[in-house]
């Protein structure tokens, strides 16, 4: 996809670059590398844990508290980022961005130059990942729907307590619906590059969030806001955390990820995120394009390609979920409850998701993100230059360094896979019996390798 023209969003929302394939054997080499590194990590860390565990009394529970530190600079930073003024400043930034988007949605022109498309598909969705990795739960900090909900609560004289208690049995299942709705809008809906549908999607999102926030309070956003759930999930790979007393601490990313506890819907969230990224790669592959052009019933049913996309955007997350759940449940041995293992081991998918986001969207985020910044200075398409960026020249660095981009893609996928295996191993040490720490993890390891081989093939063989 070229950004030389002013168009930022194609007929299928956003997508990764598909014009930079590498030889399939190089992709397979990356998968083999992931396999070797994963086995080395598994064997070495298991032996270390067994040596440490041999010195502990039999039956003593494993230590699950992550290592964390409070160096002097964190102690000095804590009062600032924990202050009301800091929170108000971030919420103000979110509200200003929200007001800008409302303006572009209501009075901006319905053309490809409207910055709302880039903000919606690129900055908001893809940008959540790097911002959450660097700064923690970024969307929770600036969420305009949270700020508006707090203002509405104050206006009606509420005490801050929700009207109803959020049903914990729902977990984050409502967020799964929101994530699927965004994936459908981005990847399937044929008119997603028109202002009306994007405006309607955002309006429904805001309405649902405000009503839910008034009924169930902040817990609703933690469990039901698809963007907050996504951002907070990725933020578990950042170094920022809070201890039991609410103080700011720094942790290792995997130690921070280990604080993610099982909840209803967590497996569905990670499978939807991973599965939709995989489908985004697959939908530009030659086999899928040929199927939609020359497949059965195509000549007699004009809507069949659209139907196929609708089926696939659901089928891919389901396939990921089945493959993952089977692999994790086969990991169970002895007294371990197999049905609980998918939720216990779900954090291990988060690094893989992040790795694929970087591999799939890096070049597009770099180029289209700059184009959106240029268009943001002229929100009404009247030749204005509000922020002094209308003359910005998009830097097509990755377009001229195809080999570097291909290598970054492989490295991102391999690193995400290795961190995923390591994360699964950390959690397995807590749930598997001591004598099965190696053999019990083999099915899960095979599952991870399957994800890597399939993902690399789809990223580079399309």
TrEMBL record:
This is Fenitrothion hydrolase. The chain crosses the membrane at residues 27-45, 88-107, 119-139, 194-213, 263-282, 311-333, 345-366, 398-422, 442-460. Keywords: Membrane, Transmembrane, Transmembrane helix. It comes from the Bacteria. The keyword Membrane applies.
């Amino acid at each position: 996809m070229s950004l030389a023209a002013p168009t930022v969003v194609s007929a299928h929302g956003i997508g990764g670059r598909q014009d930079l394939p590498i030889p399939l054997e190089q992709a397979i080499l990356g998968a083999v590398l992931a396999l070797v590194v994963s086995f080395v990590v598994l064997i070495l860390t298991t032996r270390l844990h067994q040596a440490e565990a041999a010195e502990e009394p039999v039956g003593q529970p494993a230590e699950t508290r992550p290592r964390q530190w409070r160096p002097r600079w964190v102690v000095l930073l804590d009062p600032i980022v924990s202050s009301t003024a800091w929170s108000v400043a971030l919420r103000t930034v979110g509200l200003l961005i929200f007001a800008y988007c409302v303006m572009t949605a209501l009075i901006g022109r319905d053309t490809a130059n409207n910055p709302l498309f880039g903000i919606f598909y690129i900055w908001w969705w893809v940008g959540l990942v790097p911002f959450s990795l660097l700064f923690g739960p970024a969307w929770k900090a600036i969420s305009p729907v949270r700020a508006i909900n707090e203002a509405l609560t104050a206006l009606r004289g509420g005490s801050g307590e929700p009207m109803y208690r959020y049903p914990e049995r729902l977990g984050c299942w409502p967020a799964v619906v929101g994530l699927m709705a965004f994936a459908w809008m981005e990847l399937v809906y044929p008119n997603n590059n028109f202002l009306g549908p994007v405006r309607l999607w955002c309006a429904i999102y805001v309405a649902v969030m405000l009503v839910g926030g008034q009924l169930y309070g902040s817990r609703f956003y933690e469990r039901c806001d698809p963007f907050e759930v996504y951002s907070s999930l990725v933020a578990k790979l950042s170094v920022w955390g809070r201890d039991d007393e609410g103080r700011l601490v720094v942790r290792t990313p995997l130690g921070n990820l280990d604080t993610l506890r099982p909840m209803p819907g967590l497996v569905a969230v990670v499978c939807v995120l991973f599965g939709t990224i995989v489908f985004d790669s697959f939908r530009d592959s030659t086999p899928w394009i040929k199927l939609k052009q020359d497949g059965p019933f195509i000549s007699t049913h004009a809507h069949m390609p659209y139907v196929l996309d609708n089926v696939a955007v659901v089928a891919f997350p389901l396939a990921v979920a089945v493959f993952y759940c089977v692999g994790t449940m086969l990991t169970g041995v002895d007294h371990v409850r197999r049905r609980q293992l998918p939720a216990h081991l779900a954090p291990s998918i988060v690094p893989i998701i992040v790795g694929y986001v970087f591999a799939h969207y890096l070049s597009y985020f770099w180029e289209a993100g700059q184009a959106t910044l240029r268009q943001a200075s002229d929100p009404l398409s009247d030749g204005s230059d509000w922020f002094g960026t209308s003359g910005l020249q998009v830097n097509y660095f990755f377009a001229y360094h195809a080999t570097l981009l291909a290598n970054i893609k492989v490295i991102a996928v391999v690193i995400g896979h290795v961190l995923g295996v390591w994360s699964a191993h950390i959690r397995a040490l807590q749930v598997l019996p001591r004598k099965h720490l190696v053999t019990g993890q083999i099915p899960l390891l095979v599952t991870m390798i399957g994800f890597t081989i399939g993902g690399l093939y789809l990223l580079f063989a399309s």
